[in-house]
């Protein structure tokens, strides 16, 4: 019987930013189905998820994708459970209240490609800076673009794995890139983004790069990195009412601090009110306003107030499970029935 290699992927217990972990399980006669992936365990004392005297944590498979880089390989996203089968405190996926997948999410993942020899973004010279930002965004050619081979390879791998990546582009600083993914359901959107991040990081191992998700790795007059969260539910997709949209946006105002708490570490360095951000201490929304906390896309307005919203505050290092869970909770709290009627 053929042997399959299942790469179990999970999130560790480090704070304030969880990191990816993985290990390979080899099994006989695997049929490629999620329900055929067995539960597994790991040493939680080595990932800040358990004490040494009682260190077993469980891995519950929740999503599976073919691994294009391995012969008969599979990528298995998992949730971390305690030994008794309850969700671990670090398991934010289990807390998402969206069992009917009514919420759709499109995450815009920005990141910097870093050179392991210089610890600088690609395109940054030793002991200096490149020309000011302006020429790099969506650029082409060796004068303003670095890392395209890597980025294109990552896109190909993600597509071969069945991830719903909807696009890529170079961002406003040298060595800064972005990919976008979309999924129906907060859990699935988080699964796909984490697997895409896993493939992104694994690919760096053969290039001599590493991925920097700090929201402001280059100080000064440079944009930071975000993970803009585009979201909708059936109400937003069918509202047909400016008042409904404003009522939902207003629901985010009293919960602004609760959102910032789960929108990524060091985000205060990015959300300054400059470089296409609103201040971390303010909340605002507006049509086509990239300097607002929440942008109402012009496409939504032109479609008769039917579409989606974009929360521009999440940092590049945010956990998409936490971001999705918090957005869902806030939108569900919005008082829109009376307005809609």
UniProtKB/TrEMBL annotation:
Domain GS beta-grasp as annotated: residue spans: 4-85
Subcellular location(s) of the protein: Cytoplasm
Catalytic function, reaction form: L-glutamate + NH4(+) + ATP = L-glutamine + ADP + phosphate + H(+)
Database matches in Pfam families: Gln-synt_C, Gln-synt_N
Example GO biological process: glutamine biosynthetic process
GO molecular function terms noted in the UniProt entry: ATP binding; glutamine synthetase activity
InterPro entries referenced in this protein's UniProt entry, alphabetically: Gln_synt_N, Gln_synt_N_sf, Gln_synth/guanido_kin_cat_dom, Gln_synth_cat_dom, Gln_synth_gly_rich_site, Gln_synth_N_conserv_site, Glutamine_Synthetase
Gene Ontology cellular component list: cytoplasm
Domain of life, source organism: Bacteria
Keywords of this entry: ATP-binding, Cytoplasm, Ligase, Nucleotide-binding
Major localisation: cytoplasm
Domain GS catalytic, chain residue ranges per copy: 87-341
SUPFAM superfamilies: Glutamine synthetase, N-terminal domain, Glutamine synthetase/guanido kinase
EC identifiers of the protein: 6.3.1.2
Main function: Catalyzes the ATP-dependent biosynthesis of glutamine from glutamate and ammonia.
Assembly and binders: Homooctamer and homotetramer.
Record family assignment: Belongs to the glutamine synthetase family.
Record-given protein name: Glutamine synthetase
Organism for this UniProt entry: Zeaxanthinibacter enoshimensis
High-level lineage: Bacteria, Pseudomonadati, Bacteroidota, Flavobacteriia, Flavobacteriales
